[in-house]
Design brief:
heterodimer; A: 659 residues; alpha/beta; Malonyl-Coenzyme A Acyl Carrier Protein, domain 2; Peroxisomal Thiolase, Chain A, domain 1; 2 domains; five-stranded mixed sheet; 26 helices; 41% helix; 19% strand; B: 80 residues; mainly alpha; Non-ribosomal Peptide Synthetase Peptidyl Carrier Protein, Chain A; 5 helices; 0% strand
Chain lengths: 659, 80
């Protein structure tokens, strides 16, 4: 185990430097890092070595010197069964397991320290350990103060990080029976405050040729062993702004049946935590060179205790034999995942052409009063000169991207939900991605009609958390006016055009609740396309969309209302806690009936944008969300229930935190 | 088993909930559309409400035949 920042004390390397070969090694590592590490490890005072830019290289170099002293030219990875580091200690562990060379590690840690120090200088932030208390109450209090639980150290120790004001809020409202201990670190490490540090590190990481680990190497992200060197490196970068899950590392050690744990210098913190968390595990804190013989004995004794299977595997590896008959796929992709996802921003666009009910009644036998009473629609927007599906989608997406504050290079995915794209293939998404300047982005369309936006949000949430994308745009865009029979008195007044977009990205606090979704293909005929494209070509006119309005109404007000309630329950939100309700804008009467069923309190803001815009299918929810936020009827950080339902029949709903 | 009067009362409550017509106006001889201000969508809501309240299923083709409150009460009574 390699310890993290905070473990260093003035002069802790003095006994090591006394040995000429260790001193030479330290000077070499210092030369690589461009820092006089021998000075910082022996002469410098506590304040000097508290500086992140110095502390980080110093800690890694101390661990590497001890490894060299322990194993000489031999491979540490061949001698031990498992390696793990806490925070910056992960870099030491990467060298131990053979992923990085000592020199690669020193260059990387110097940059890591510098970038983190710079990010920490942006605004005054700090960290406080919270010891004791009931675990959930501690996490709740940390979240309530707006802080991030940046380290989960196990055995009732969590480190909260954030701005000084947030930390004051925590000390004003501390969790019951817990003690708060301010830490002497210079910033809110492992939180979103560190995000500015990521870009430079990511660029550097690309140039490092990392080898695959030669022994089990655990990651702070989830406590799991990572099999690929490059994947571990990608995690090392992202980990700067991600909480340290040392508790999960300890859990994995327990599951693997670890019997002995040795901590590299400056040792004590991790050995102590291990003692408190892992019963029956022997620990060894290596702090001076005179312990080296004992340390070697300790390693040999516990390495002998490892399972027969592991010994065989190690022997096979040494003799160059294949380790296993079956290739094991590595699970990680180009990025490490995020603990949670959230909607970062939203944008929308509607066509400029406004058509009122009077206008529509030229084509259908109806009246303004009838349409208003049955649906709530007073006017709708249809595309006119110079507007099309693409222009609407692009406008909405550009708005959302601009509001997200992200650079184009941070966005690597785009999902478009539409039924209005007239090409079976290629999809609309890659074209939009190219026009938006998203290079090499994952891009595809989904066909889930009026449920499409919520389907897209569900996919985006999963993709971000799995690490398949970093940030992704979800667009709902429709030009239903081109698929409407203007003489059909049940749909002509209903369908409309528009586009909405949301950017979904990683979060430390969950912003997208569990999706409740499904389909009922037995009602495939309830909303229909009048002809398939082949028939339409033969007939010489495009198909139109029609529906059995009463059947849809019945399904929406019974089954979908129940699904909406299930989405609330799945997110653990009561009707009282909800701030905003944004159902797909199909019909105000459906919304009213859902409200009666859900018994939402008066304070809940309800989306009614159908009145102005008609039913624009997949676009209706993001448009309504954007409008409610822009008008101040809804506010950022509020809790909203969104639910879409439509042709298929398909539906999806989830509770989200508004951007 | 609910009696005819209990079914009418429950139905009257549903009509009142959905369209606001006073419950005492909901009598067996009244037409949903002509007398009680119930339109097609409100009728769907009332049907769904009846299905839940009485644990029955009212198929679409049947629901179209329910012109008066008496029609609905008779159907529910026969199928509960």
């Amino acid at each position: 185990m390699a310890p993290g920042q905070g473990a260093q004390t003035p002069g802790f390397l003095i006994p090591w430097i006394a040995d000429d070969s260790v001193g030479a090694e330290l000077n070499w590592l210092g030369a690589v890092a461009g820092l006089d590490l021998a000075h910082y490890g022996s002469q410098a005072d506590a304040d000097t070595i508290k500086d992140t830019a110095i502390a980080q290289p110093l800690l890694v170099a101390a661990g590497l010197c001890a490894l060299k002293a322990l194993f000489g030219a031999g491979s540490p990875a061949a001698a031990v069964d498992l390696a793990a580091g806490h925070s910056v200690g992960e870099i030491t562990a990467a060298v131990l397991s053979g992923v990085l060379s000592a020199e690669q590690a020193m260059v990387f840690v110097r940059e890591r320290g510098e970038q983190m120090a710079r990010a920490a200088a942006n605004q005054p932030t700090a960290m406080t350990a919270v010891v004791g208390g009931e675990p959930q109450a501690v996490l709740d209090a940390i979240a309530a103060a707006g802080l991030t639980a940046a380290n989960h150290n196990g055995a009732g120790q969590v480190v909260a990080a954030g701005t000084l004001a947030q930390l004051e809020a925590l000390s004003a409202n501390p969790p019951a029976r817990a003690r708060l201990i301010p830490l002497s670190v210079a910033g809110a490490f492992h939180t979103e405050h560190m995000e500015p540090a990521l870009a430079k590190l990511a660029v550097l990481a690309k140039a490092i040729g990392a080898a695959d680990p030669q022994t089990k190497l655990l990651s702070n992200f989830d406590g799991q062993a990572v099999a690929q060197g490059q994947a571990f490196l990608a995690r090392l970068v992202n980990q700067v702004a991600q909480p340290v899950r040392w508790d999960l590392c300890l859990q994995t050690m327990a599951e693997l049946g670890v019997t002995g744990l040795l901590e590299l210098p400056p040792a004590g913190t991790l050995a102590g935590m291990a003692k408190r968390n892992l019963e029956g595990v022997e620990t060894f804190a290596l702090n001076t060179p005179d312990q080296l013989d004992q340390a070697r004995d300790f390693i040999a004794r516990h390495a002998d205790a490892k399972s027969a299977g592991a010994s065989v595997a190690k022997a096979a590896q040494k003799s160059g034999m294949p380790r296993a008959a079956q290739a094991v796929l590595s699970a990680s992709t180009s990025h490490s995942g995020a603990p949670y996802a959230k909607i970062i921003s939203v944008g929308s666009a509607v066509p400029s052409r406004v058509l009122d009910n009077q206008y529509m009644c030229q084509f259908i036998d109806s009246s303004d009063e009838w349409i208003t009473k049955r649906t709530g629609i007073k006017q709708r927007r249809w595309i006119g000169e110079g507007e099309d599906l693409r222009s609407l989608a692009l406008t909405a997406a550009r708005q959302a991207i601009a509001k997200s504050g992200l650079g184009l290079s941070d966005i690597d995915g785009l999902i478009v939900s539409t039924v209005s794209h007239y090409y079976q293939t290629p999809a609309l998404a890659p074209l939009l991605a190219a026009e938006l300047g998203l290079s090499d982005a994952v891009a595809y369309d989904i066909s889930a009609a009026c449920a499409g936006f919520c389907y897209g949000i569900a996919q985006a949430e999963a993709l971000v958390r799995a690490g398949h994308v970093r940030n992704i745009v979800v667009i709902g865009a429709e030009t239903l006016s081109r698929l409407t029979d203007i003489t059909d008195r049940s749909t002509a007044f209903l369908f409309a055009d528009g586009a909405g977009a949301a950017v979904v990205g990683p979060a430390q606090v969950n912003g997208i609740g569990p999706v409740v979704w499904g389909s009922d293909g037995s009602q495939y005929e309830v909303i229909w396309q009048s002809a398939d494209w082949e028939q339409a070509v033969l007939a010489g006119k495009p198909p139109v969309i029609g529906m059995n309005g009463q059947a849809v109404f019945k399904w929406a007000t019974s089954y979908i209302a129940v699904a909406a309630k299930r989405a609330l329950e799945a997110a653990g939100i009561t009707a009282e806690e909800l701030d905003v309700f944004i159902p797909h804008q199909a019909n105000n009467r459906i919304t009213d009936t859902m409200l009666r069923y859900l018994k939402l309190p008066e304070h809940v803001t309800v989306a009614r944008s159908i009145t102005k815009y008609g039913n624009n299918s997949a676009a209706s929810i993001p448009i309504a969300m954007d409008e409610l936020l822009a008008s101040g009827q809804a506010k950022s950080g509020q809790t909203a229930l969104i639910i879409g339902f439509g042709a298929g029949l398909v539906y999806a709903g989830q509770v989200v935190t508004l951007p | 088993m609910a009696t005819t009067e209990e079914i009418r009362e429950k139905l009257a409550e549903l009509v009142n909930d959905v369209v606001g017509t006073p419950a005492e106006d909901v009598q067996l001889d009244k037409s949903f559309v002509d007398d009680l201000d119930v339109d097609s969508l409100a009728m769907v809501e009332i049907i769904v409400g009846c299905e839940e309240a009485f644990g029955i299923t009212i198929p679409d083709e049947e629901s179209k035949k329910l012109i008066t409150v008496g029609d609905a009460v008779a159907f529910i009574e026969a199928n509960q």
